[in-house]
Amino acid sequence: MSSIIKILPDHVVNKIAAGEVVERPASVVKELIENSIDAGATEIFIDIEQAGKRLIRIIDNGGGMSKEDAEACFLRHATSKIRSDADLEAIRTMGFRGEALSSIASVSRIRMLTARQGDLSGLMIELEGGTIKNVSETAATKGTSIEISHLFYNTPARLKFLKSPATEFSHILTAVSRQAMAHPHIRFRITHDKKPVLELPSSQGFTERVFQLYGGELAENLIQFSGKRDVVGVYGLIGRPAYTRADRSCQDFYVNNRAVKNPSLTHALYGAYGDMLMRGRHPVGFIFIDMDPALVDVNVHPAKAEVRFRNQSQIHDLVWEVLREGLRNERLLAAGVPDAETGAGDVREAAEDYVAGQSFAGGAGPVNYAPLLRRRKTDLLPADHQQELLPPPFQEVVPERRMQKPLLSEQYLYPVSQIHDSFIIAQSREGMAIVDQHAAHERVLFEKLQDQHGAGEVPVQNLLIPAQVDLGPAEASLLSEQLGELDRFGLRVEDFGGGTFVIKSVPSLLVGADYKRLLLDILDEVKVHGRSGKIDELRKDVLSVMACHPAIKINRRLDIKEMEILLADLFSCRMPHTCPHGRPTVVRFSMEEIKKMFKRI
Ligand code: ADP
Ligand code: MG
Q1: pLDDT (tens digit per residue) in 406-424
Q2: Cα gap 126→109, rounded to integer Å
Q3: Contact at 8 Å (CB) between 174 and 476?
Q4: Per-residue confidence at 531, pLDDT binned at 50, 70, 90?
Q5: Cβ-proximal residues to 292 (8 Å cutoff; 6+ apart), any chain
Q6: Ligand 1: does its nearest atom lie under 6 Å from the Cβ of 144?
Q7: pLDDT in tens, 366-414
Q8: Ligand 1 binding pocket mutation candidate from 46, 58, 79, 125 (most atoms within 8 A of CB)
Q9: Which domains, ranges and CATH numbers included, belong to the chain?
Q10: Residue 173 Cα, ligand 1 centroid: separation in angstroms?
Q11: N or C: more exposed end of the chain, with fewer CB within 10 A?
């Protein structure tokens, strides 16, 4: 045998392509919706069974296909959208590679029914593993219905990599949501295991669509922005700086209505917020860029999920500027909000309230935050509600440990003073130390919550006024799966359906925290760990989120007694030297170091 190189047969080539194009059921849903959009559909119905493993059915009222096209569309590189390489420069359609249907067909069973306006009959075509098994004519109305069943039935390795049904379905919802955001006028309906999940009537625009998709909580916290330079337009919605998330979900970029990932766009988004973002927090944004298709290469990723701009840095700068302008219009930048680390959110919230209540003169000098910090929303509530909403007096957070002997007495610190209402200066046996009061209190609360949770006895406080959170369907379905788990943490949340959740009770240690924000932050952790199925990680992170919320903020004055209690508590902890997120709680200086600094030794 002289030649060992062979051209692979089509069915193998398709299966290989499927590996890139069809990663999971959500990828199939994405490709099929794109086809429906390209076919001019104004209604797209999506039925899913067993998170897409058993069935994915997409029905559209688009233009449909001729009988010849219906048979040809499953061939590799079969497309009606481009004709020549020159067309690649001017892509306005979602699809153009002509490989979605062939790839999907190679790893599933398909039944498709399609008809054009005025056709006397439609064509029904059935395939298995990419091979046509049956073609027949049948009555049909204009549009295309395509059913994918037993996805990955002939690629067991792929099947094994699928995550839990909840996770796969949440990926599907994310895929639908992205498309739905980019096409607010199209009506979408999605069912899962025959139950309705999402009904999105044709909407007027992005704001209405965000509301339909993600609920009022998010929609009410968005700022509209738009700007243009030359032929490039940038517009959309971004979150108010005070509304941030613990993860990067809800950051969607669209280029000519195609949902894309592009690190430089993400960079521009973060850059626009600059130091308004606390460390570890992420902004939300739905950012649309419209430009001449010749200036962007959409053919750099098999699933068309990435793009490359011809002039990357100009687009980056434009997006940055337009977003920055949008935020500035919100008068937050002009207010000169300082860059406090922890607790900055509270300061900003107070500042926003303050600014909103003032006839604000642009370009005013620095704002004096001291009076703002003392002003709280609860000041406006009737007295009998304040009891429940105010943070507990500090002493009560740490009752029985006050008299305990510190476990690590040699490390014990004697508070001397507090600086800038944020750090405790203390004397130690061998010198001095600075304690981050927030980090220290977080550690104390974390271990306390951990002990209570471990013992299965978390004291709870029922809320007189239950807090309500409205979520979009994807997040709602993830959260509703974890309600039992949250209950074990003392956080009792009821699912009222339609994305509405009500927080009925909270762990006593958390009384006074911002419960809504707490739940949203926990949800972000659920998204990360719920997917990976690592329940221990989830528990640890939920505990640290919980510990962070009521913990004493930077910018709170403590008296010596409070400092003593905090330090005593800290050194009763199992791991006093770091906060639950791993940041140090204490920085120590020995007398030797201090003397050296002053050149005494
Ligand atoms: P691409 O979208 O890149 O052209 P696909 O494999 O996704 O490639 O689809 C192949 C072709 O089949 C499309 O170009 C289009 O002509 C036709 N087609 C696919 N889905 C639909 C649909 N829902 N309605 C009408 N035509 C469709
Ligand atoms: Mg396509």
Answers
A1: 344 556 788 999 999 899 9
A2: 8
A3: no
A4: low
A5: 231
A6: yes
A7: 322 222 222 233 322 333 333 333 333 333 333 333 334 434 455 678 8
A8: 79
A9: 10-202 (3.30.565.10), 208-329 (3.30.230.10), 398-601 (3.30.1540.20)
A10: 22
A11: N
Q: How far is the CA of 78 from the centre of ligand 1 (A)?
A: 8
Would you state the structure tokens that stand for residue 456, as one six-digit string?
């299965």
Q: How confident is the model at residue 360 (pLDDT cuts 50, 70, 90)?
A: very low
Q: How far apart are CA 366 and CA 370, in angstroms?
A: 12
Name, in order, each residue with C-beta under 8 angstroms of 129's C-beta and a sequence gap of 6 or more: 11, 105, 106, 107, 108, 109, 154
Q: What six digits make up the tokens of 534?
A: 């690592």
d(CA 525, CA 329): 32
Q: Report the C-alpha gap between 483 and 489 in whole angstroms.
A: 10
CA neighbor of 421 nearest in space, from 585, 589, 562, 280? 562
CA dihedral of 157, 160, 165, 171, whole degrees rounded to 10: -50
- Scanning 8-141, the segments in alpha helix (DSSP H) are 10-21, 25-38, 67-72, 100-106
Q: How far is the CA of 250 from the centre of ligand 2 (A)?
A: 25
Report which ligand 1 atom has the smallest distance to the Cα of 104. Answer: 6
Instruction: List C-alpha distances in Å: 386 to 389, 396, 511.
Output: 5, 16, 11
DSSP structural state of residue 51? G
Contact 21, 159 (CB under 8 A): no
CA dihedral 514, 517, 520, 526 (to 10 degrees): -60
- Mean pLDDT to the nearest integer, 520-544: 77
Residues forming beta bridges with residue 586, ordered by sequence position? 435
Residues listed for the chain: 601
Nearest residue by C-alpha to atom 13 in ligand 1: 79
What is the residue whose two structure tokens read 């890139």?
Answer: 20
Percentage of the chain beyond pLDDT 90 is 43
Query: Taking phi first (over 0 means left), then psi (-120 to 50 degrees means alpha), and beta for anything else, what does residue 498 get?
Result: left
Using CA of residue 89, residue 90, residue 93, residue 94, what is the dihedral sign? positive
Measured in Å, residue 125 CA sits from the centre of ligand 2 at 18
The answer to whether the Cα torsion of 345, 351, 354, 358 is positive or negative is negative
Residue among 38, 59, 94, 125 whose CB has most ligand 1 atoms within 8 A, to mutate? 38
Q: How far is the CA of 239 from the centre of ligand 1 (A)?
A: 36
Ramachandran class of 117: left when φ > 0, alpha when ψ lies in -120 to 50, beta otherwise:
beta
Look at 337-346, 484-493, 498-507, 589-598 and tell me which has the smallest mean pLDDT: 337-346
Cα separation, 329 vs 529, whole angstroms: 37
Instruction: Tell me the C-alpha to C-alpha distance, in Å, between residue 121 and each of 66, 67, 114, 389.
Output: 10, 10, 9, 66
Per-residue pLDDT tens for 246-267? 888 889 999 999 999 999 999 9
Token readout for 555 is 């910018």
Q: Is the CB of 65 under 6 A from ligand 1?
A: yes
The dihedrals phi and psi of 134, each to the nearest 5 degrees, come to: -160, 135
Q: Are 269 and 319 in contact (CB under 8 A)?
A: yes
User: Of 269, 301, 296, whose CA–CA distance to 282 is shortest?
Assistant: 269
